[in-house]
Specification:
Elements lengths: L1 E2 L2 E5 L5 H8 L5 H4 L7 H10 L4 H4 L2 E7 L4 E11 L4 E8 L8 H17 L3 E7 L3 H9 L3 E12 L2 E11 L2
Parallel strand pairs: 5-6
Antiparallel strand pairs: 1-2, 2-3, 3-4, 4-5, 6-8, 7-8
Length: 170
């Protein structure tokens, strides 16, 4: 899957260093419901599990990569439900690559892959109310706000609302 200077690829053991940095960066924990650092062993197991079929493990993480094989971020499918033909989407662009349109290109690639290879009809995203950049990104790829979950997540000593966005592919 390639589009406009980037492609999505599978996680490799060589991604462990960047994965350790991202997964253990506390500023992202509020969006991923993480409460403690992850060990290199846990993340190595996660990478090894990625070779298993999405129909079995119900999730898949892709590396967003430049054509020069530079890691730009990650995009995930999670809560995959093949019977109902839906999956959740999560995306993270590494700080120094943000604001360059890479997130939109990566989501476009994921949408193509989801429809063509997984026969997914509905993609959804849970987005923190205050995460304006993420709201803008998902809107730019045709996701529509379908709900607001009041006081859904607790972090920074208070409750925060969360939007539910969806994109129907068929």
């Amino acid at each position: 899957m390639k589009i406009k200077g980037l492609f999505l690829r599978a996680l490799e053991p060589s991604d462990i260093k960047i994965l350790m940095q991202i997964e253990n960066d506390e500023k992202f924990w509020k969006y991923s419901n993480t409460t403690e650092p992850l060990s290199q062993n846990i993340l190595s197991s996660f990478i090894a599990e990625q070779k298993r079929d999405i129909f079995e493990v119900k999730q898949k993480r892709f590396v967003i990569s430049s054509l020069k094989f530079q890691t730009l971020g990650f995009v995930d499918l999670f809560d995959f439900e093949p019977l109902h033909r839906r999956a959740g989407v999560g995306i993270l662009i590494i700080d120094k690559f943000r604001g360059k349109g890479l997130g939109k290109k990566a989501l476009d690639l994921l949408i193509i892959h989801s429809k063509k290879n997984l026969n997914i009809n509905c993609l959804f995203a849970n987005i923190a109310y205050e995460n304006k950049a993420s709201v803008s990104l998902f809107k730019s790829t045709g996701f529509v706000k379908v709900g607001l979950k009041k006081s859904w997540n607790f972090y920074h000593n208070s409750f925060h609302d969360e939007y539910l966005y969806q994109k129907l592919l068929y």
